[in-house]
Amino acid sequence: MNETRKLPIWFWIVAVVAILWNLMGVAAFGYDLTVPGNAETMASLTEAQQDLYRNQPFYEKIVYALATICGLLASIGLVLRKRWSILLFMVSLMAVILQNVFGYFNNAYEIMGTGYVLPALVVLIAAFLLWFSRSTAARGYLT
């Protein structure tokens, strides 16, 4: 039995904001991939920042990709009202946490001058989106 249910406006607001947030993450990921190949951008960075970009291990790029792309796909799944978005939000959260561990241990936040507020915010938002998808699935909003 396929029951059509009118969802509350807050569901759609969170789902659309989640897409926008994760689009920004994918854009940041794409930008970070292009920095080492852009001589002008590299020249504008400090030596320590250049070293950070040049020496970033491939596995860190994979984790970054998982964090952002899974988050975006999960957000799209949320708009489509699909339960599989829960799994993708879970992968995204785990990747975000792992990415922050890497950033902490290689001093990326000090080197880049970003501090710890934004990374903590990213973790909190990823955790919220996982909770939100689980909560809405429990209410029967996701199929």
Which outline best applies?
elongated
Strand content: under 5%
Low-confidence region ranges? none
Q: Sheet with the most strands?
A: none
What would you call the structural class? mainly alpha
Average predicted confidence as pLDDT: 94
Number of strands: 0
Rg over alpha carbons: 17 Å
**Helical proportion?**
over 70%
Terminal Cα span: 12 Å
Number of helices: 7
The domain tally reads 1
Q: How are helices and strands ordered from N to C?
A: HHHHHHH
SSE topology sketch:
Blueprint: H1 9-34, H2 39-43, H3 47-54, H4 58-79, H5 84-105, H6 108-112, H7 117-138
Describe the structure.
There is one protein chain. The longest helix is centred in the first third of the chain and has 26 residues, at 9-34. The chain is built from 7 helices and no strands. It has one domain (18-138). The protein is mainly α.
List key phrases describing it.
143 residues, 77% helix, elongated
In brief:
This protein has 143 residues and is an all-alpha fold.
